[in-house]
Amino acid sequence: MSATMAGTGNLPRPLMRVRNLMKHFPLRRRAIGLGRSSVRAVDGISFDVMKGETLGVVGESGCGKSTMARVLMQLIRQDSGEVVFDGRTVGDRTLPLQAFRRQAQMVFQDSYASLNPRMTIEDSIAFGPIVHGTTPAKALDRSHALLARVGLAPARFAGRYPHELSGGQRQRVNIARALAVEPQLVILDEAVSALDKSVEAQVLNLLEDLKRELALTYLFISHDLNVVRYLCDRVIVMYLGQVVEIGPAAEVFDSPRHPYTKALLRSVPSGDPLRRLDAPPLSGDPPNPIEPPSGCRFHPRCVVAQPVCSRAVPSLTDCGDRHAVACLRWQSGSGYSPASDIGGLPPIRTVEVSHA
Ligand SMILES: Nc1ncnc2c1ncn2[C@@H]1O[C@H](COP(=O)(O)OP(=O)(O)OP(=O)(O)O)[C@@H](O)[C@H]1O
Ligand SMILES: [Mg+2]
Fold this sequence. Notes:
The protein is α/β, with parallel strands linked by helices. 27% of the residues lie in helices and 20% in strands. It has 10 helices and 12 strands. Helix 4 crosses helix 6 (167-179) and helix 6 (167-179) runs parallel beside helix 7.
């Protein structure tokens, strides 16, 4: 497999386009008096994944990261919206699911989840290529080459079963299994989160090497902002099923625009005492995704919210340098008054908590 991206030039192009993606989970009727309510897990998400990049996805637990990943992989079907891969709509006649799944693979947090406990790891890795038409002999060759590539000597590991491996080794197998069908895109959903720090660092290095060698594109979902900062070219910040900020990782981490992103970054533990407590960290639980707050969904927790924020819905607004934010404060003509927000200091809180 080629070690270069020769021919792609310097112009990034979208490998995957996600448009107005929506996935609600209906609730059972006993939800008192609310009629047919649902969990708005993914609630109108649009973004591009550029070829060759590592795009991070961050946000508190329950904000819809995994649901979005599962919809992108078409493990669950969206209610509406579309996913376009390399110019073709996923699930269409031009890109049926089986063909798409050769192009996009996923690695989950639970290293047991994608491995059949009754299959040797060489067979688990060979399984995908065989399903996609490779001969068993060739698939086994590829399986062994990949095992060696992810640092598991085939002579020692090929015949083992998943329970005979450590978590880190199993995750290497899962990475090999994902790569066995030669995908372009790999979605990593908390793929290293369950590992010890030292093992995590090794697996991250492996992922970086593989990405370079195989010209892969990663969608990297993680709650660990330090890892995202280290690994990702761009970052998406999600809040209650929506994108609130997207941009180059350096921009988002060093000059965050959305008050939620700022709060999220402040909540990262810092060893530096000077970096602590300059402003209040993110407080309170995320509101209910069944009945998200009106207007800007973050307004009940936002330190710079104004009354307009409970009424008007912000749209993702470009603020230059491929950086976009969904906050009325950054949206001209939104009715947000910058006068009371001089120097970025939190104004007196004037928040109406109301629900749609
Ligand atoms: N199958 C389901 N049925 C009903 N609700 C669901 C289902 N799957 C997810 N949800 C809900 O959708 C919302 C988003 O969940 P999701 O797992 O996508 O969040 P997440 O950002 O991945 O969280 P975490 O960081 O904890 O992994 C949550 O409120 C969750 O309870
Ligand atoms: Mg998740």
